[in-house]
From TrEMBL:
CDD domains: Sortase_C. InterPro entries: Sortase (IPR005754), Sortase_C (IPR042002), Sortase_dom-sf (IPR023365). This is Sortase. The lineage of its organism: Bacteria, Bacillati, Bacillota, Clostridia, Eubacteriales. It comes from Ruminococcus flavefaciens 007c. One of its GO terms (molecular function) is hydrolase activity. The chain crosses the membrane at residues 7-29, 247-267. It comes from the Bacteria. Keywords: Hydrolase, Membrane, Transmembrane, Transmembrane helix. Signal peptide: none annotated. The active site is at H148 (proton donor/acceptor), C210 (acyl-thioester intermediate). Gene3D superfamilies: Sortase.
């Protein structure tokens, strides 16, 4: 009965320990997996662009400009965008819904931009808010890019609150890099779109996410204006050292501690079994009879 109880205890302990390790490792593993998926999607996009001729690129950009022109004629573009046809097909050169990608060096963001902000999009990448300008640049355009923060499965815009004025990010559309410098940071209600309207003399992009972290009652808007791109595009120089986020470090430390505890527990269990076996052998040794008896 005692051995059976020990086996049950051992099984419960191992299941609990393995479940704890999996629970702790899931965010880091999932984020790593999504990062691989996102990087592959961007690589496929760049490959598709590289295989296009200049006339096709010019035609695609011209179609996007026409779409933006028609959108700007609407009195309330965020309410009436359905009246402008062709959204899903415009700038979609791979047939996957990707219209380009965003790079934010300060917070290590490198993500594809998809059409729309459906749950399927926002769970894996960033989405273009329909009703805002397509990201082709130009005065009178205001593009809105949205993403979640705090997802256990993907980092996305989790660190966007670290951006401050004068920070820079880029949008890569086809083979053109559009560079933007942060000039405003606002917190608004979800229904407040006053900060998302276009300005006739400005080329704007706003990054949007939920705030406060984990509460999500408001929207954090990081607005930026277009500046000159001062470095050659189509060249991504990897850093000499890769910065690992705190969550990954903490997960690795806790997982290592749990594994060490498991090893320690297995060793101690084996020593106890060995000790008990030795004691049983001692008790099994027959006593010698007294020669005088």
């Amino acid at each position: 009965m005692s051995k059976r109880r020990n086996v049950i205890t051992t099984v419960i302990f191992v299941i609990t320990l393995v479940s704890g390790i999996c629970l702790i490792a899931y965010p880091s593993f999932s984020n790593w997996w999504n990062s691989r998926y996102q990087s592959r999607a961007i690589a496929n996009y760049d490959h598709a662009v590289a295989n296009m001729n200049d006339s096709d690129k010019e035609r695609i950009l011209a179609e996007a400009e026409k779409y933006n022109d028609r959108l700007s004629e609407l009195a309330a573009p965020y309410d009436e965008y359905d009246s402008v046809s062709g959204y899903d097909d415009t700038l979609d050169i791979t047939g996957t819904g990707i219209m380009g990608y965003i790079t934010i060096p300060k917070i290590n963001v490198y993500l594809p931009i998809y059409h729309g902000t459906s749950p399927e999009v926002l769970n894996i990448a960033v989405g273009h808010l329909q009703g805002s300008s397509l990201p082709t640049g130009g005065k009178g355009r205001h593009t809105v890019i949205s993403a979640h923060r705090g997802l256990p499965s993907a980092k996305l815009f989790t660190d966007i609150d670290n951006l401050i004025e004068d920070d820079v990010f880029t949008l890569t559309i086809l083979d053109e890099v559009l560079t933007y410098e942060v000039d405003q940071i606002n917190i608004v209600l979800p229904t407040d779109r006053s900060e998302l309207t276009a300005a006739d003399d400005m080329d704007l992009v706003t990054l949007m996410t939920c705030t406060p972290y984990g509460v999500n009652t408001h929207r954090l808007l990081v607005r930026a204006h277009r500046i000159d791109t001062v470095y050659p595009h189509n060249v991504r120089v990897p850093a000499d050292a890769v910065q690992v986020d705190d969550l990954t470090v903490y997960s690795a430390i806790v997982a290592a501690v749990l594994i060490l505890l498991l090893i320690y527990w297995l060793i101690m269990s084996r020593l106890r079994r060995s000790h008990n076996f030795s004691q049983e052998k001692i008790y099994d040794i027959p006593l010698k009879k007294n020669d005088n008896s």
